[in-house]
Amino acid sequence: TLRGATRTFPLSSEVLAAVAKLATRVQATPFMLFLAAFKLLLYRYSGEPDVLVGVPVAGRNHVETESLMGFFVDTVVLRDDLSGNPRFVDLLAQVRETTLGALAHAEVPFEKVVEVLQPERNLSYNPIFQVMFSAMKSPVGSRDFGNLSVYPYVVDSSTSLFDLNVTLVEWIAGKSWIQIDYNADLFDGSTIERMQQNFCNLLQGIIANPELRVNEL
Q1: Least crowded by CB within 10 Å, which of 11, 53, 60, 217?
Q2: Among candidate residues 29, 48, 19, the one with its CA nearest the CA of residue 200
Q3: How far apart are CA 215 and CA 217, in angstroms?
Q4: Are 202 and 41 in contact (CB under 8 A)?
Q5: What is the C-alpha to C-alpha distance for residues 149 and 147, in angstroms, rounded to an integer?
Q6: DSSP state of 204
Q7: At what angle are helices 13-25 and 30-46 packed, to 10 degrees?
Q8: What is the DSSP letter of 121?
Q9: 8 vs 4: CA distance, rounded Å
Q10: Burial of 139: CB neighbours in 10 Å, binned 0-12, 13-18, 19+
Q11: Which of 52, 58, 153 is nearest to 103 (CA)?
Q12: Burial letters for 196-215: b for 16+ Cβ neighbours within 10 Å, e otherwise?
């Protein structure tokens, strides 16, 4: 029914700093590490090692589009294989290569990918992937334009295009949080709270020992 709800949870600055430090050490970005941890969470919940997650991309890869107003965002689908109980650092290396490969072809419209792959279509769920993951770093804060003052605020949506849509929002007024939009026909609020806690637990375990295998975390 696309009936949705939203929950937000604080993300500590200590976790963000530790993730950034570890990502640098293993030659990845914090986004890649968060994404790998999220894929690990999905694997542990579902038992399915073939994990596909949609990620939005800005769609402004050319100088000519940088100053244009408009919605250029498109979606890439990142597919990784978690079978064989790999070490987390090996999973992260795989996610890194998957992400770089997808971004190298980000100009291909998602609709074209669907057209070529021809997956089984069903109006009750999105084709190819049903879970999205994204990050917003230092979004625009409050500003004044003459007599006009603008400021951001979180919109609690009552609809959900995906089963899950997880967004990391970093460093707004010194605070960061995880926002989870979810299909309310599939999940309830207590499940989402438990999922968020499990995600944070995984991050803590990864920070403590990234050499552990995924089934040990």
Answers
A1: 60
A2: 19
A3: 6
A4: yes
A5: 7
A6: H
A7: 100
A8: P
A9: 14
A10: exposed
A11: 58
A12: beebbebbebbbeebeeebe
Question: Is a pLDDT exceeding 70 seen at residue 10?
Answer: yes
Tokens, residue 204: 């803590």
Rounded to 5 degrees, φ, ψ at 178 are: -105, 125
Residue 183, φ and ψ in degrees, nearest 5: -75, 115
pLDDT 10s digits, 167-216: 998 866 667 899 999 999 999 999 999 999 999 999 999 999 999 999 99
Strands 131-137 and 164-172, how do they pair?
Answer: parallel
How would you classify the pairing of strands 74-81 and 143-145?
Answer: unpaired
Residue identified by tokens 């190298």 is 104
**pLDDT tens-digit series, residues 45-79:** 999 999 999 999 876 677 777 778 777 788 999 99
pTM for the predicted model, two decimal places: 0.89
CB neighbourhood size of 195 (10 A): 21
